Amino acid sequence: MGLNGAPDTLLTTKTETAAIPWRPVGDPTCPDTGYGAGFAWRASDNVCYNGMAFNLTFDLSSSGVTLPNDVIIGIAYNTQSYGSSPVGSDGPYNSLNVGVPSGQTASVGSDDSSDKLFWNTSTASWYTDGGASGVGIFRQDTNWTPNGTVAFEITAASLPDVYVDSSYTLGNAGGHTFGYDAFSTIQAAMNAVAPGGTVHVNAGIYSNVSLTGSYNSNVTIQGTGNAVIDGLNLTGSSFNGLTFSGFTFTGDSSGYGNYSVTIDNIGSYANLTFSGDTFDGQSVDQRAAIFLNQGFDGFSLQNDNFKNYISANAADVYSVVFAEAQNGVGNNYTADDNNLTNSNAKNFLEAYRWQNVTYQNNSVNADLGRLLVWSDNTQSLGAVNISGNTSNLTQGTGIGIFYAPSTTATVTGNTVSGADTCLVINNVSSSSVSGNNFSCSTGNSTPQVVVTDPNQPVTVGGDSGGQAIDLSSLVNGTLPQITINTNNATVTIPAGTTVTAGGTWNGILSAPTVLNNSSVTIPTPSGTTTTVATVIEVGAGNLNLTFNKGVRILLPGQAGKLVGFVRNGDFTQISQPCTADSQAAGDALPAGGDCYISVGSDMVVWTKHFTTFVAYSQAPTPTSSNTSSSSTTSSATSGTNQASSASSGSSVLGSSTENGQALSTSAQKAAPALAIAAQPATSKIFGLAWYWWLVILLFIVAGGYLIYAFASIDGKL
């Protein structure tokens, strides 16, 4: 400033055309406010005012000026008779004033002196010094307490790129302007970055970062080099689109619990992403990575690494990442391509009351690390998709989905090994489990899918070696609809089915398992060859499980074959055709009954019991005519020829006799050939087989008859 208190450097100026509203007309009920009764107007708060305040905004962004830490702001305007260019006509501007409320204080920044302000008046006596320092000029005046603070706000233009380094200071900002596009804290930089902009954070340790303000949308905070955030608290902030990328997160956020990143249940959040970050628990006891205590729309973890979440007691830390929608409901939670190593927290990812959750292509190599989605038994979770994940654990559960009504859960293409249980689905309205590789313990009889809700349809299958289903909680009740798909069989159990076991059953239902063709012995009629096509074990081994409803078993590619079952080594042929491939036909079977029907290229068995099922065929065994002696034997091969026995009650070429009834046309045609082939061969007589002597005898008899006939005719002649 100059010696007379007038500013000496003009930074920028802007002229705006503004609409000045008229104040309302006076209210006769208002008392005298200095201009006589009835002059003031009555506002909605029932208070009488002489004037009416309003705000004016000036956009100075086009000037591109960088403001120093201290600025002086002035406003000038024309009235009818005053100003640099008086307008010469009456109007509301004649009584336009700048607001200087009594007791006004600065809420952001500070007022250098609440006793001083700057103004320009042509009335000398209005200056405190009587005009000694000049009249009609914009200069500093004193003795304005308590009205020395003018109400105005400066909003700096945001920038697409701002920079952070803990060592930045005024005049030392790496070629940037400190306080404008360069800052020493992430918090300060967030106030300057434009929507869609990037905060570039240099290497260093940034401790106790607390972002609690309202921020522009779609901002990326990008760590460069070894940028470490040692504790991040987002509680109370407001953002829509905030991404952290390239950081290592450590420490405690000083928010809820012992988490490195915290959002508590106050604030307005949307679309929070961590991408390409590392979360390091540093093996600090009971340390975890992320805690969200409020649901919002859009939470994403992408290509992040989580490591070293080791506590003194396994599972002391319940979840490495805990997204808990305690306040409201979360929506659209996606975790893709993340890794967890060296952890004994019970869960890697946990989502509570979050709708539309996707865990995809994540990798877990730890003692524990379940992928968990659950609700409170009342809130729907929409669609839950857990696919393509790989979990190598030493204990615990691989995947869990719980207490989610009106929810569709899809579990597909996952690999889980080493855990106690691979998958548990509980109280979910609909679920599909397919294409997984589950090997949580030895053998298919180990429960790898747990079902506890009789109203929860379940589809499983496509897994290596099949997978067992734990129905132990439903042993004394009814089953939900269960579909088990494998490459070798599809089993469908209808909803409402009850199971009766011929012994003690633990509720474990094994998936269809292919056994060696030589593992079964099928009675073979003399002179035929039996060919076993497939042997499928389903149920509980040799334990007899029977059902009150028909269960459908589809054997792909086995149409036209014979079919039977084996229990405790005893084979029984299924000889009754089904009236139709329908649930009604299956339900109509007697207790423990079976029937079969070909559907396209497949064989379908409807049954009311589980055991080992066999598809096979039988064909005549070729005989040799040039051996001195032989006997007909039966054999089993691995070919695919169709054949049959003509004995009563057996099947021929896929058709069955019932209680000695006639065979089908194909069977009748096959029977004579089979009858000949079944005769025992005899020794040759003078080098000729017995049937050749039969032919010769017939010729001799015929010849004798002809001679006799000729002699008779000749005698008559």
Determine the structural class based on helices, strands and strand pairing. Answer: mainly beta
| Residue share in β-strands | 35-45%
Q: What is the count of β-strands?
A: 46
Helix content: under 10%
Global mean pLDDT: 83
**Rg from alpha-carbon coordinates:** 46 Å
> Distance between the terminal alpha carbons, to the nearest Å?
168 Å
Discrete helix count: 4
Uncertain regions: pLDDT < 50 for 5+ in a row?
442-446, 625-683, 710-717
The largest beta-sheet arranges its strands as: 9-10-12-15-18-21-24-26-23-20-17-14-11
Approximate shape:
elongated
Taking the sheet with the most strands, its summary is: 13 strands, parallel, barrel
Brief summary of the model shown:
With 717 residues, the chain is mainly β. The chain contains 4 helices and 46 strands. A hairpin with a 2-residue loop joins strand 41 and strand 42.
Please describe what this structure looks like:
With 717 residues, the protein is mainly beta. 7% of the residues lie in helices and 38% in strands. The chain is built from four helices and 46 strands. The strands form four sheets. Strands 9-10-12-15-18-21-24-26-23-20-17-14-11 form a 13-stranded parallel barrel. It has a two-stranded antiparallel ribbon with strand order 1-2. It has a two-stranded antiparallel ribbon with strand order 3-4. The protein is elongated and about 165 Å long. It starts with 40 loop residues before the first strand and ends with a helix. Mean pLDDT is 83; it is low at 442-446, 625-683 and 710-717.
Features:
mainly beta; 13-stranded parallel beta barrel
